[in-house]
Amino acid sequence: MVQVPAMKRVKGRAPLSVVVAIIGGLALAGIIFTEDLRSLTEIMDKKKEKQEEEEKRTSSLPARARMMLTRPVQEATPAAKEAFDPRRCSTTEGYWAYNWTKRLPYTDQTCPFVDRQISCQRNGRPDSDYLYWDWHLDGCTLPSGPLSIRERRFDPAAVLEKLRGKRMLFVGDSLQMGQWLSFVCLVNSALHYSARTMERTTTLSVFTATEYNATIEFYWAPFLVEANSDRNIRLGAGGRVLHVDAVELHAKHWEGADILVFDSYVWWMSGSRIKAVWGAFGDDGYEELDAWVAFRLGLKTWANWVDANIDPNATRVFFMSISTTHMRSEDWGRDGGIRCYNETWPITRRGYWGSGADRRMMEVMSDVVGRMRVPVTLLNVTQLTEHRADAHVSVYTETGGELLTAAQRADPRAHADCIHWCLPGVPDTWNQILYAHL
């Protein structure tokens, strides 16, 4: 029998060293795979924990709010938006998004200057979601202060520096008064109580930031031009007569301002016809004009004064566009609703336009301002305002100097105010846009 030499290699079998190397390589690969799998698992676990934490933060919100919270992430990433440039940025193209992390710069309890008429929380409004909506522009971002844009869109310290040694004057009706009070409360948050004063009268009110030698004032002139109801506001729409070609009695108070902010609209819409005179008040002969015709005449009178008396190198002039009313709940699909009463959510339909803002009046405003010699910045806040049926004072207000009684609140058809805005609220957004232009 022939014996096979002991050292002869068996055909098809790898050397022991190769086998050991292969086994070692597989073990190492297994270790690497296990570590990668462990790392991936840890990442997924962390992601899951983050999602669960986020769900806990938002689960208390209505389903619609949770849905809306995703929109800024999808459409408003920092890389997709430019810094605010008033020549290119449209304030009308945008959307409201709920911001559950928002820190209110003031409340109607912390700011001592908010009128009782618009102090909704102090007057007993039970809901507060209307306070936590931010207006986001589609194409760019509104400037922010030292905190992130989600936390602060109005830098009171920077505004006060811009106003140092200057006089800022808001002119218009009670809606403009609300914007003035909003502006005062926003800057007041950066002032010590001993570093500001407030003097209020029925015609001219003055807030002074003493250490900045700056004043932020409001002058009452709901039509801008002169009217027999400027002082006697209880005269009523039927008794009002406008001097559509006279503005001097009001305008003498506007002289010397460094920044002028005007508004005028809602009082012109108290009826389809307006009584107008060109002679002295008291004359029997007045003419009834369509509201939009009288509005054009009155606005041209105001524009002529601005062009003749304002030095654009010394004074900046702004005009606020229409502040929308919400008087027909059918406009936004709330059949059987009572205007803005019990509305707690913005109208989310993009581009919504109801019956509370007259397009023809808006065209008159744009046309007159666009033809002026002195540059006037028309701050178009109408579209963003259209969506906020939830932010009016409704029945959480006063009438005749007295808070609505329980019986009056129970009768919203007679007493719900769907013209004026709660503070804090929508006028803060108007001032964020004004701040972006300053």
From TrEMBL:
Its main location: Golgi. It comes from the Eukaryota. Keywords: Golgi apparatus, Membrane, Signal-anchor, Transferase, Transmembrane, Transmembrane helix. GO terms for molecular function: xylan O-acetyltransferase activity. It is found in: Golgi apparatus membrane. GO terms for cellular component: Golgi membrane. Residues 88-140 form the Trichome birefringence-like N-terminal domain. It is a single-pass type II membrane protein. Residues 153-436 form the Trichome birefringence-like C-terminal domain. It holds the Pfam family PC-Esterase. Belongs to the PC-esterase family. TBL subfamily. PANTHER family: PROTEIN TRICHOME BIREFRINGENCE-LIKE 3, PROTEIN TRICHOME BIREFRINGENCE-LIKE 9-RELATED. This is Trichome birefringence-like N-terminal domain-containing protein. It comes from Panicum virgatum.
